[in-house]
Amino acid sequence: MGFDWEFVVSVMPIYGAAILLTIKIAVLGTLLSLLVGAVCSLLLYYRVKVAGSLVKGYIELSRNTPLVIQLFFLYYGLPKLGIMLPNEVCAIFGLTFLGGGYMAESFRSGLDAVSSVQLDLGLSIGLNTFQMIRFVVFPQALSVAMPSLGANCVFLIKETSVVSIIALRDLMSVTKELIGMYYNTVESLLLLVVCYLLILLPVSFLLIFLERRFRYAEFGV
Amino acid sequence: MTMSTGAAEREYILEIEGLKKSYGDMAVLDGINLGIESGEAVVAIGPSGCGKTTLLKCVNGLETHQEGTIKIDGREIGADGFDWRQARQKIGMVFQSYDLFPHMTVMGNILLGPMQVQKRKREEVTEQADALLDRVGLADRKNDFPRQLSGGQKQRIAIVRALCMNPDIMLFDEVTASLDPEMVREVLDVMLGLARQGMTMLIVTHEMEFAKAVADRVLFMDGGIIAEEGSAREFFEKPTTERAQRFLNTFYFE
Fold first, then answer.
1. Any idea where the domains of chain A sit in the sequence?
2. Does A120 contact B88 at a Cβ distance shorter than 8 Å?
3. Are A157 and A195 in contact (CB under 8 A)?
4. CB pairs under 8 A between A and B
5. CATH architecture assigned to A5-219
6. Rounded Cα gap, residues B81 and B83, in angstroms
7. What pTM, to 2 d.p., does this model score?
8. Considering chain B, what is the average pLDDT of its residues?
């Protein structure tokens, strides 16, 4: 039994569509995770009263439950409460829910690394809280948090492989279908691996570049 | 203290009355009264833990005090809508740690306050910054990042950064204490130049020779109060209190 090149070529359009869906969910989910994480970490950092406690609860919930279960809840649970969301929205929402917690923790490690001297400096020139975040705290926190934020991005993109459980035709789902229909297991799985590498290798290289780019702040003297 | 009589006619840039600060039961500042006139260079000295640094930090609100009032240009901070953020624009501060913002160039560090806080035009501030950088001998370093500079250079930039806000008074908190000995002089020279040009300054330092050279008035602080106060010559030649004598003796070798 040789390698079925004809099959590989014929299913490429299917993989093409699936890869686009995976990228869509991954990109939106990751970007929203970064946003949620940044906001949550700042709420914790500035010890905002009620919101701070809520954020703590959210982080524990998001990091200590599997994505599959979060997705199940969104897709099968919420409709019982009268909230119907399209499955793509569920996937993006679920990924954001999971990723937000991880991103918040990464940002927090960066925020904690900003020295109190830097804060005094910012205050002494009259910066308000928003200016302090924008010009002093956040850029320095980002520099420290960059490697771990990057690792989270890669992790989240890989986590998209479970969205088939809410009936989305992503790479994993398409692969399983094709194996079921044609028994071309090796070809289908190989395509799957190649597709994920196509997505993730550029991301990894981009992250290496960004890490260097943002390493402007050499802390300590 | 100097403020008790005839204070009303005096024009003080900085006026502190009855300032008290404590951490729990421990009083760090135990009733400070101080008036600094325009163009005056006042040096605060004293043993570690006497409250010098805390005094400076209270003056620009980096530490909160429990009692007393602080006035800048006759306006009481916290009253009539004059808040710390406004007050800090009139108070330049230079810290012991000679930190700059590490992610910004020298020029970026200098422009941040004037442009973002005071909403001044880039060209105008850049012009002023160039002139000041030239004065401290660092005109060629304006595009460098802080990590490319020595401690003394950073501290001179920090002074320029504070000056660019056009403050009414400058606070210096042991600004040479963390520097390598050979860099101390370049920073002190900048400060001496400022004093000679009539900048109002409140300086905390352990450099006694510098204090003698720069001070119009010396405050000797001990135990959270101003224990003795006088002109530099009076104070260093014949300190009246026993505590000040003992403190000054620690700087002399037989």
1. 5-219
2. no
3. no
4. 71
5. Orthogonal Bundle (1.10)
6. 6
7. 0.84
8. 90
